[in-house]
Amino acid sequence: QVQLEESGGGLVQVGGSLNLTCAGSPGILKSDTLTWYRQRPGSEREMVAQIAYLQGIKYADDVKGRFTISRDLVKNTMDLQMNNLQPEDTGAYYCHLLSGLSGKEHWGQGTQVTVSS
User: Fold this and answer.
1) Per residue in 11-49, pLDDT tens?
2) Cα 49 from Cα 68, distance rounded (Å)
3) What is the rounded average pLDDT of the residues 75-86?
4) For residues 111 and 19, is the Cβ–Cβ distance under 8 A?
5) Of 49, 54, 56, 55, which Cα lies nearest the Cα of 35?
């Protein structure tokens, strides 16, 4: 059973930066797709950034140029560097894994990001 744990959330002022980390249990494969989702208050969960073996990296339009996703296959971690944070970036951020072998999905518990103006 894959386990994912997010960390790095917090309270930051507009224009500030945060780095989120998703730590995964051993066994995460290069073929697995890792995604950061955000859930704003009162809204559905939405994709923020994704890193996939064949498809590469993609970002939501509103974070392009500000957020950077990366992964470390040795440490089984995925990071989301968030710069120039805006109030609309406020929300719970979740780590998601889609297994390239089984097609199973796994979610972390989430970490809260709050951007104050």
Assistant:
1) 999 999 999 999 999 888 888 999 999 999 999 999 999
2) 8
3) 97
4) no
5) 49
Cα(79)–Cα(46) distance, rounded to whole angstroms? 17
pLDDT of residue 8 exceeding 90, the answer is yes
Q: Map tokens 């979610």 to a residue.
A: 107
**Which letter, b or e, does each residue of 47-81 get, where b requires 16 or more Cβ atoms within 10 Å of its Cβ?**
ebbbbbeeeeeebeeebeeebebebeeeebbbbbb
Give the CA count within 13 Å in the CB-facing half-sphere of 74.
Answer: 0
C-alpha 30/C-alpha 23 separation (Å) is 15
Q: Please report, for residues 70, 117, the alpha-carbon distance to residue 36 in angstroms, rounded to integers and kept in the order given.
A: 11, 24
